[in-house]
C-alpha cells in the first residue's frame, strides 16, 4: 500500500491511498482537474493536461511504482504540480486507520 500526496501550487492539494498505480494516476487527474476546471477554457485545460498532467501520470506508473516496490519514497513535479508517493504498511485500499 502507498500514499500519494499531490499539490497544485497556490491552488490546492489532495491525497490518495491504495495499491493500484493506474488508480493513483486517475486520482491525480480527477483531483487536479476538479481544481482547474472552474473558469478555465476547455482548450487551455486540455493543453495544460497534455503538458503537465499526462507526463506525471506516466511517471507515477513507471518511476513511482519502481520506487515504491523498492520501499522508497518518490517525489516528482512538472509545472505547477508536485507529487509524492510514500510506501505504507497495510494492504487495503482507503485511508489508513486512525
SSE map:
Layout: E1 2-8, E2 12-18, H1 21-36, H2 42-69, E3 74-78, E4 81-87
Antiparallel strand pairs: 1-2, 1-4, 3-4
Using the CA coordinates, give the radius of gyration.
13 Å
Strand content: 25-35%
Low-confidence spans: none
Structural class by helix and strand composition: alpha+beta
Average pLDDT over all residues: 86
Query: What does the overall shape look like?
Result: elongated
**What is the string of SSEs from the N terminus onward?**
EEHHEE
What kind of sheet is the major sheet?
A: 4 strands, antiparallel
Total number of strands: 4
- What is the first-to-last residue Cα distance? 16 Å
Helix content: 40-55%
Number of domains: 1
Provide the spatial order of strands within the biggest beta sheet: 2-1-4-3
User: What is the number of helices?
Assistant: 2
Could you explain the architecture of this structure?
The chain has 98 residues and is of the alpha+beta class. It has one domain. It has helices spanning 21-36, 42-69, and strands at residues 2-8, 12-18, 74-78, 81-87. Strand 3 and strand 4 form a beta hairpin. Helix 1 (21-36) runs antiparallel to helix 2 (42-69).
List keywords for this structure.
alpha+beta, 2 helices, 98 residues, 4-stranded antiparallel sheet
Concise overview:
Helix content is 45%, strand content 27%. It is α+β, with helices and mostly antiparallel strands and 98 residues long.
